[in-house]
């Protein structure tokens, strides 16, 4: 039977099953290790849900109660109301709340609040809601605007609120409470990454996420599962996990640094995890870390090429186009592997990255190195679930379509590897920044860093060394580069399908791609903007000009990062990366809707279960594929 990847599509969101084919062949101790680490991941899931929006968990509770009751007795509900709540709930699960993961914009229920309230009453009568008597109506009433008003707290992260407006006050996430940028003048954060900042009558207070502090229940359970994993870990991984446990207990930045160093030092373990407060995209300031967790094992068959790339990192560093003073004289500790993911949650799932380079701490990168992973099974699932019409609609010619079909997957895989290994892992910043360029570049930092990594990938994908180390076939490298440059140009157009309201881009990866392409359009002859049959196309017409322009822009982007030039970073994105023509967006949306093409994807994870013998000993860990977002989300919430 043919394997099922695309499970369903809800509005513009595809739901895709993720497979981990190599899991069953792993040694038993590695399977058990993965199981414990997956339990640690699930234990922290609600941290991210709470960080993302203060009403998230309460809203999710009502929605899931309705879905559970509807599965038992659908006839008890108005069918149109139940169908709409199910649609909304699936989007709510995929996006970890009522804000689109890519656009940051709020989506709302399409039924009335009164219809929702009636459905909640039915669920309560079915025993699915445990509110205290008389409290349910008041509690639900407080959520009316959260469920139904798109103008109430419309953006989870707002990095471009307009002149004179505050990026924190106009961001709906729960990383701050009552805090404005002006309140931060003169305030020194001790726990920037892993705290919630609250304004009280006595001043600003950092609520620190740690055992006994903020998110104590979740973190306590994470620690329990990490401790259970220790006997099955390699010695180097055990050292890293013990350091992570210490950090979760104390919350101190020095212990976070010790963990990051220990994690980077573990270069050979076949199983690994990312668990903690990691990426700062959700914070408009670019300081606070969103909680996430991934659990994965090495895919040996796909690791060889990316491993060789890491081994030659110094060769590429020496040939970066920027001045030598911003190059690393000694690249240390760079490792890279292709992996198969078994569990992703929090900020990394259901909407998932395709490549990761950590840690984000600039000083640790420079002094100890970094680890890059390419999520091989995620890339495969994306590719297998992508309709052919997606490429055909936005390619200018049959030859471009053919190149995309033949080389698009490989080109994307290689540039993602270069982006993570060489892009994020390269360069140095000037001493006056103290290893913290994000503090100088503020809300522009994340977009700038993603721009820099993309430019490094575009700059080196055509380098003969890439073929020499076996990442692409030398005889086809020119065609692969052309396919990648064409796809990159197209993407700046196609990604507008994701932003169905407003005229600005908030998500940092989308800003970075938009900025690069529009800078190239404005400053080179590499890309033509063409019209045919009232349709717009971004056509890459000169690969040499594309490469030359990428090099020029990369030098400037590295200068901005290395010196902390906030004004230049802001001007770069304001000019080329944030604003777009809504009529062009409307055209793109009409084209994708006509073909019923998804704008983004949420993944259903594999399920793991312990297998015991008659004496109770673990003899295996079984893997299965639920093929249902609804089943998995309800099960995960029930396991809290």
Explain this structure.
The structure is a single chain. With 640 residues, the chain is an alpha+beta fold. The chain contains 25 helices and 15 strands. It has helices at residues 28-43, 45-52, 56-72, 79-94, 113-125, 136-141, 144-148, 216-229, 235-250, 253-265, 300-311, 313-317, 362-367, 376-385, 388-394, 398-423, 437-441, 445-460, 464-468, 477-494, 508-523, 543-563, 566-576, 582-595, 629-638; strands at 6-10, 13-17, 176-177, 195-200, 203-208, 271-279, 290-298, 334-346, 355-358, 370-375, 527-532, 535-540, 600-604, 607-612, 618-624. The protein has a 5-stranded mixed sheet with strand order 6-7-8-10-9. Strand 14 (607-612) and strand 15 form a beta hairpin. Helix 9 runs antiparallel to helix 10 and helix 18 (445-460) packs antiparallel against helix 22 (543-563). The two termini are 35 Å apart. The model has no long low-confidence stretch (mean pLDDT 95).
Layout of strands and helices, then pairs:
Elements: E1 6-10, E2 13-17, H1 28-43, H2 45-52, H3 56-72, H4 79-94, H5 113-125, H6 136-141, H7 144-148, E3 176-177, E4 195-200, E5 203-208, H8 216-229, H9 235-250, H10 253-265, E6 271-279, E7 290-298, H11 300-311, H12 313-317, E8 334-346, E9 355-358, H13 362-367, E10 370-375, H14 376-385, H15 388-394, H16 398-423, H17 437-441, H18 445-460, H19 464-468, H20 477-494, H21 508-523, E11 527-532, E12 535-540, H22 543-563, H23 566-576, H24 582-595, E13 600-604, E14 607-612, E15 618-624, H25 629-638
Parallel strand pairs: 2-13, 3-4, 8-10
Antiparallel strand pairs: 1-2, 4-5, 6-7, 7-8, 9-10, 11-12, 14-15
Helix pairs in contact: 1-8, 3-4, 3-5, 8-9, 9-10, 16-18, 16-20, 18-21, 18-22, 20-21, 21-22, 21-23
């Amino acid at each position: 039977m043919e394997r099922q990847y695309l499970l369903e599509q809800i509005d513009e969101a595809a739901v895709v099953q993720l497979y981990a084919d190599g899991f069953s062949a792993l040694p038993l101790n590695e399977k058990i290790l993965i199981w414990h680490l997956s339990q640690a991941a699930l234990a922290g899931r609600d941290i991210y849900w709470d960080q993302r929006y203060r009403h998230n968990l309460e809203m999710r509770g009502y929605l899931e109660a309705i879905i559970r009751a509807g599965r038992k007795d659908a006839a008890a509900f108005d069918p149109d109301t139940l169908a709409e709540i199910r649609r909304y709930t699936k989007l709510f699960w995929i996006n970890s709340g009522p804000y689109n993961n890519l656009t940051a914009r709020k989506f709302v229920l399409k039924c009335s609040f009164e219809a929702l309230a009636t459905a909640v009453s039915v669920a309560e009568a079915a025993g699915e809601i445990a509110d205290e008597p008389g409290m349910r109506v008041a509690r639900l009433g407080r959520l009316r605007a959260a469920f139904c008003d798109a103008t109430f707290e419309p953006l989870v992260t707002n990095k471009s609120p307009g002149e004179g407006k505050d990026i924190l006050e106009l961001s709906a996430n729960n990383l701050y409470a009552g805090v404005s940028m002006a309140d931060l003048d003169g305030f020194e954060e001790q726990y920037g990454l892993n705290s919630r900042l609250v304004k009280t009558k006595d001043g600003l207070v950092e609520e620190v996420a740690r055992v006994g502090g903020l998110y104590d229940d979740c973190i306590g359970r994470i620690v329990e599962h990490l401790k259970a994993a220790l006997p099955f870990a390699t010695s180097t991984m055990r050292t890293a996990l013990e350091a992570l446990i210490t950090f979760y207990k104390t919350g101190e930045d020095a212990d976070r640094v010790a963990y990051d160093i220990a994690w980077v030092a573990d270069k050979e373990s076949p199983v690994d995890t990312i668990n903690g407060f990691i990426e700062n995209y959700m914070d408009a300031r670019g300081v606070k870390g969103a909680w996430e967790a991934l659990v994965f094992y090495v895919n040996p068959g796909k690791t060889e090429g990316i491993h060789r790339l890491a081994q030659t990192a110094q060769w590429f560093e020496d040939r970066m186009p920027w001045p030598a003073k911003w190059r690393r004289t000694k690249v240390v500790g760079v490792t890279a592997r292709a992996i198969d993911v078994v569990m992703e949650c929090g900020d990394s799932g259901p909407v998932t990255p395709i490549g990761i380079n950590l840690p984000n701490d600039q000083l640790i990168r420079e002094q100890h190195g970094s680890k890059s992973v390419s999520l091989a099974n995620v890339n495969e699932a994306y590719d297998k679930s992508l309709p052919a019409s997606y490429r055909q609609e936005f390619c200018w010619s049959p030859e471009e379509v053919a190149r995309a079909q033949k080389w698009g997957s490989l080109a994307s895989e290689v540039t993602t590897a270069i982006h993570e290994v060489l892009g994020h892992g390269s360069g140095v910043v000037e001493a006056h920044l103290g290893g913290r360029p994000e503090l100088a570049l503020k809300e522009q930092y994340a977009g700038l860093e993603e721009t820099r990594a993309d430019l490094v990938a575009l700059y080196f994908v055509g380098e003969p060394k890439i073929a020499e180390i076996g990442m692409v076939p030398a005889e086809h490298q020119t065609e692969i580069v052309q396919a990648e440059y064409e796809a990159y140009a197209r993407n700046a157009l196609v990604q507008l399908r994701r932003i169905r309201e407003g005229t600005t881009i908030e998500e940092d990866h989308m800003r970075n791609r938009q900025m690069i392409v529009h800078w190239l359009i404005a400053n080179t002859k590499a890309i033509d903007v063409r019209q045919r049959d009232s349709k717009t196309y971004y056509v890459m017409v000169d690969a040499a000009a594309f490469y030359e322009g990428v090099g020029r822009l990369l030098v400037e982007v590295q200068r901005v990062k290395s010196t902390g030039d906030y004004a230049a970073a802001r001007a770069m994105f304001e000019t080329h990366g944030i604003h777009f023509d809504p009529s062009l967006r409307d055209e793109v949306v009409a084209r994708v809707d006509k073909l019923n093409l998804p704008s983004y994807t949420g993944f259903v994870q594999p399920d793991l279960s312990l297998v015991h013998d008659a004496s109770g000993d673990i003899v295996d860990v079984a893997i299965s594929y639920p093929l249902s977002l609804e089943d998995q989300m309800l099960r995960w919430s029930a396991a809290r």
